[in-house]
Design goal:
The structure is a homodimer of 252-residue chains. Chain A is of the alpha/beta class and 252 residues long. Chain A is 42% helix and 19% strand. Chain A has a five-stranded parallel beta sheet, with helices on both faces. The first copy, chain A, has a five-stranded mixed beta sheet with strand order 4-5-3-10-9, with helices on both faces. In chain A, α6 packs across α7. At the A-B interface, α8 and α9 of A face α8 and α9 of B.
Chain lengths: 252, 252
Amino acid sequence: MTTRIELAVLPAEAHAVEADCYVVVDVLRATTTIATLLDAGATFVIAADREALARSVAAERNALLFGEIGGLPPPGFDGGNSPLEAREAAVAGRDVVLFTTNGTRALAGLASRATVLAGALANATAVARAASTFERVCIVCAGEGHGRRFALEDFAAAAVILRHILAASPSAEPGDAAGLAIETARYDDWLRSGLPQQTAASARLIAGSEHGRALVRLGLSGDVQFCALEDTADAVPVVTGWGEGWAQLRAT
Amino acid sequence: MTTRIELAVLPAEAHAVEADCYVVVDVLRATTTIATLLDAGATFVIAADREALARSVAAERNALLFGEIGGLPPPGFDGGNSPLEAREAAVAGRDVVLFTTNGTRALAGLASRATVLAGALANATAVARAASTFERVCIVCAGEGHGRRFALEDFAAAAVILRHILAASPSAEPGDAAGLAIETARYDDWLRSGLPQQTAASARLIAGSEHGRALVRLGLSGDVQFCALEDTADAVPVVTGWGEGWAQLRAT
């Protein structure tokens, strides 16, 4: 039962929050890809924030190598930081190294403090169910630009996960940013009650975010749309190992 | 004419934003108090983030000394970090030292980069008018806990200032957090169009914020209510000097 629910608007804020469980959200696209890879049967996903590290870990572990530079996979990679590619790839029983920056730093940076889960809209219900078993939960927006900039898409996805947790623990006390997420959700409820065909706020905010628009310009609108879908995966990725610039996750 | 409008959810984020003008918002209560002091005729306000520094600067400059520890003025101070006290005090023609942490750090930390203004609901229209003359504007939430935690009240006040700037420069391109503020404002418009007596979102969010509730518990509900009022002051405080832990402001 959750008694306190916080939302950290940037990874740096999470370090000022005492929690028993951190849910890191990098919805475009790292945590969506991680949840999708584990849902597709990958044994471990190792997120790495430097290309050379990603390549050497992949070679050591005979792992598949996914990831991006400027949105696209570097030469020699098996796939992009793409949930659509992750869903189609033959990853069952394999380890996968994912080269990506913002999400990795938040996942690795918090792992010494408490249980760290990777959350996205793709696994919103499943990750909320897992987080709800902890007393103090903090949902962490991974952000952009090495975690220095606020990312609207992460906030939008975090708000959906937060509502699921509050539905399970209605008496949980929300912190300030959690209160803002609840406020945003009320607007969405109103909009959708009057206009049943209205897109969910989360999908609208993800598509309208600076990162979402940049991915569309790169021809990745399929990924952006997929990242806005809820509950395409049951996997709850949990960090089971970490170090400078990397975090290893498996499904709980 | 503003072409780009950003909102920084924490002071640390502002350092990753290129802007020609930063508007620092610490609505409970530092920037409200600063705007009110200058509106009441104070010559300079010197914000200082350490008590010893505040006392020594006040002695040097024969200045009045306002400020707070845990919400209340320390012994020997002339007033609290209180806009209500600021409005009543005989400050015309005097310098005032204000001892306060979050707002001071954001004001001093950004002053080497660009023009820095102090904004609040108290001077929302005036500060937005001044900021609108700059091309790239960033409104900065000062936050709580030495600027490490997001503060709902600062976001709510920043959203009001942002809307005024967008009204003057409708084609200004908003960043991600600015987009979230616009979303929040849409909900408020709807709420108030249906329920004309409904409190503005800004006042509701300020009263509901963790800091707002803490001030009420200290018996400072008058200050909280005053900080939620718009346009009680015409003064636009601008930083004209700064150093480690302090910033000097005068009215533009």
